[in-house]
Protein 1
Amino acid sequence: MKILIALLITINSYASITSIYSTRDGSYLSFNQLLEELPKSGFVVLGEFHNTKSIQEAQARIIKEKAILENKQSSTRIMWEFLNHTDQEKINESFNFLLSRSISTEEFVTKVAGKQNLAYIPIMEVAKEFGNAPIALNLPRELKKKVMNEGIGSIDPIFVPAHHYVGGEDYLTRFKLAMGGHAPDDMVAKYFLAQCLTDSVMSDEANKNHLNLSFIIAGSFHTDFFDGTVSRLREINSSEIISLKITSKELYDEEFIIGSDLFGQYADFILITQ
């Protein structure tokens, strides 16, 4: 059964989004129906494939139109995996330059995240329109590398959330598969520890900076199957959390729609972009 072909025929196109599927009731939705399904307040987790233009354009439209629908532009927070929370003051300073038109959105993204991440300009344009600086969720690479080489006790405890834990067997199994299934166990353990610390830190920063309606932009491996960052966030925040997996036609796998035999459904909603 060619699910992708069928849904492209039956579902209208919304900008770069060609189809929206709800795993909760097994139905296809319009873009406006999706907006109504998302929480009026709480968290919307936008699990993504990085640096894919159509995906970041879709994320920007979801954030903008949902915030406008709920009239919550001023209290909407855009939270981004690619930024280190230790740099938040510098990010805020650069964002003020963006608001004052001293720099362009392209220059802002280049300054805070690197030129390789210019696909995120549409999302930062929404942040600019709302007047809210993006919230940094991650830890610097050098701290995670230190954890990998010397253990979690090697870094200042202020960087390790109180609720941190190493993920379960399903997450570890997925992680091993993502690494190719051939890496030595000691190497897998080191990288997995850094992965789980990232999940803990991102959920912690999201929780601390949440006001009303928050959008978390993170790689889908951190959010697939309601695991990783999503599972940790649910432990520390009682707000509604809805998870999306956003893919493109080129990256699409039919399993995204039907779910995994081993791990279940990927997210509450699956979006496919041009």
Protein 2
Amino acid sequence: MLEIATLGAGCFWCVEAVFSTLTGVSSVQVGYSNGLTQNPTYEQVCTGNTGFAEVAQIHFDPSIISFEQILEHFFDTHDPTTLNKQGADTGTQYRSGIFYNDDKQKDSAIKVIKSLKEKNIYKNPIVTEVTKLKDYYPSENYHQDYYKNNKNAPYCMFVIKPKLDKLKK
């Protein structure tokens, strides 16, 4: 039985590329979560006025990779200490967020964040929001499998590839 994790960590192309490489992840779909309207478009979300976060829905087999392990990769591959910003991407749509499906996921998220704080992993406070998943809308088709389909695009070469290289280490 697969579970779903919905995570926002800046540009959803990066999140999709990272999680697509993990053993136990069966699929990753990018989209928009927890906004103010229905069926938003990319152009609307990019304004930063819709309340939506760019997210990835990660379908995974918990007998192979746990939700906590998913969260460890999540925190390893983005900066959870910058409010509404990841690299050059700024705005509420790029916020760090764990959009949980149930109390078990919520408790796991709080536990992982608490552990990171206790270990002083980050110099600045973690600002990742932990919020119940209110809604999710898949993004337009051209955003799906973006890295896989556009490896030579500058954003892919200079932003996504270094994240994937870091993950391999």
Protein 3
Amino acid sequence: MTHKRYKILLVLGVLFCLAKTFGQNPIIQTRYTADPAPMVYHDTVFLYTSHDQPDAVGFKMTDWLLYTSTDMVNWTDRGTVASLKDFKWAGKNGAWAPQVIRRNGKFYMYCPIHLGGIGVLISNSPTGHL
């Protein structure tokens, strides 16, 4: 891991702690999200999240979202990066805590599905096209 990437991850960790402590200025203000999973690639922070629907009773999580930033102040909403529809065996609810890992030029998105298992999607790009 390069020194610059380490600094970005360290700052991101501090920002998450401050957001939790003070509850001010959350990164995501327009949707119900949980389980943030950051990944740094080419000086960009890719923040993958689970997504709870506003009409949920309990929880209604059917997809995963992506936000990106090059300065950790300004964030771009990249929308839905994957959904339960990507897995024929998945039910209609339970898209939980994702994580994306880069290995050998590919991006592997690990998608825990409540009471179903862990699905894996593979892409050439961190923005999806999974």
Protein 4
Amino acid sequence: MSQRILIAAATLLELKPLFDQLELPFPADVDWHGWNGLSIRGMVTGAGIPMTTYQLGKTLVLDPPDLLIHIGISGAQPGRFSIGQCVRVAEERFADIGAETADGGFLDMFKLKLWDGDHSMWTNRSLRPKYPVGSDLDLPAATAITVNTIPGSRKTIEEMGIRYEYDLESMEGAAVFQVALGEDIPFICLRGISNAIEPRNRAAWDIQAALESVTAETIQFLNLIQAKVASDVNILLKNRDF
């Protein structure tokens, strides 16, 4: 049986270049398509935490893959990575779900005692992959936060930096981690860096470079999986080490 790999992204913009390179039909959110001995399905979840949680969660429950690959573009802290570089997200957290205090401070869901930090899903109140998927890729590992509102002012960016130590920000990553961990699906999240985290300046973004890098690294990873499957599928399945 061929390995079933679900490749998800928030937007069509982030997913279609990959399927064009793989020469697979698109949209591909219904059927599984054969590619070099693997079965691949694409999925556009929609942007943001609610859409990602619903669309991805439904699929992982009703039609679970052997592996989930989530791809997209992201902003990064200045100086951490280069624009156009691809990184592997090793840790995620929800950054702005909680309550504001009277003096303008912030209480996250753990401080409010509405989430249990001792739950097996959490590691020091953050989300980390359970399986070593992609650990042999020559990509830097990044710590990310997931927000409902992308910070666009210097004040908000500075406040978020005080609240958390992080490399990247996105609007979906932690939702992907949570759903995949909850359903015990091996997963990897790859992000192409499109811009520095700074006061909003779309003119400085390089979305094309970010898309090209994450597409190229995803194809390299798929080739690696294909080679491993061909060499020893039993070990692959047992260890969930893609």
